[in-house]
Amino acid sequence: MKKVLAAFVAACLMFTVLAGCHQSTVSSDVQSAAVTSGSETEQDSSTAGDNWKIAVMTSTVTQGEEPYRAAELVAEKYPGRVVHVTFPDNFTTEQEVALSTILSVGADPDVKALLIAGTPAGFAALIDKLKEQRPDILVWAGSPSDDATVIAEAADVVFNTDIPEQGYQLAEAAYEMGATTIVHYSFPRHMSVELLLERRNNMEERALELGMTFVDGTTPDPTSDAGTTGTQQFILEDVPKMIEQYGENTAFFGTNQAQVEPMIKTVLEEGGIFLMPNDPSPFIGYPSALGIEVPEENQGDFEWMNEQISEKLAELGMSGRAGNWNISLQILNLQVGAAYAEAFINGETNGEFFDRDVFESVMKEVAGEEVSIQAYQDPATEQELENYMVVLADFMAY
After folding, report:
1. CATH class for the region spanning 7-27+45-162+329-392
2. What are residue 169's phi and psi, to 5 degrees?
3. Is 105 left (phi over 0), alpha (psi -120 to 50) or beta?
């Protein structure tokens, strides 16, 4: 797993220098006319032809660099077959722009699958519109913010962290790391997301069971007028206040990537415990916060990166005061999604959009046996959403 993911991230990082000049657009050969494909919901591999394509939709670099770079690598792996587009930074007020982009992609009959990374709330309705135009297209929704039942009905395959279970995991990790208080940073838009709220509630429940204090912190929404800068400035100012009030054995976690780097930096300066990035990866927040320069030969090397983080924390007397998973869920999402889409397009699935056996086979091929896989269970009905797959990796303290 490490070798596969290391190679994947390495290629992603090679594109960093191009961030300032690259702008993601719909492929020039996407047709302007919409395609109607009848009422079939099964894939006929004989119609795929040799010109099939996969569309990949991510945030811009401003909102999340890792999924953007992961999409670029998917394009490298499938030369000439990937259409990479982005949704607006402020999706909540620019849904029509995102819908127009999705429908434009769907207008190309050669595009057989759409992979979405970090699927924002409200995307289920956009997927429904796409399906009206292209009922034959496979839609893969990664890390969605829509309610589980809503997105599972709209998309064909849903991929996510086991977010509710992660709440228990994080509280237990905080306790093992010596925390007496947990501060959970978020904002109303995220707390309106069923899974994120469930994780927060589970974290509080387990924290109280373990005798810890649980505190809610509300930051500006990075998609609001305050932007990413406003969110980061709030973290830089508020974390010291929390440590002053609750002490150095206060553990911090935030629900947005923009919060990660300033949170790590402030914890290192003021004391405290940083649990992990909201999107697990040693390449999120840590390198810039710790000033780690990554030589070309070590780019994408998870083992090397984890060693560097451990060494830096030891130098600062912060060993055991920060944690992570040792894999990137955003990269895993698109890598597994692309492999699954290829199998679907080539007629290697069971004829339906979702084939759990193929999903698990692809996941194990990419991630090995170290990641648990299961279908999401709706807490309200206790019913499994069979096409909504969640994964959980082991927590590690540096």
Report:
1. alpha beta
2. -60, -45
3. alpha
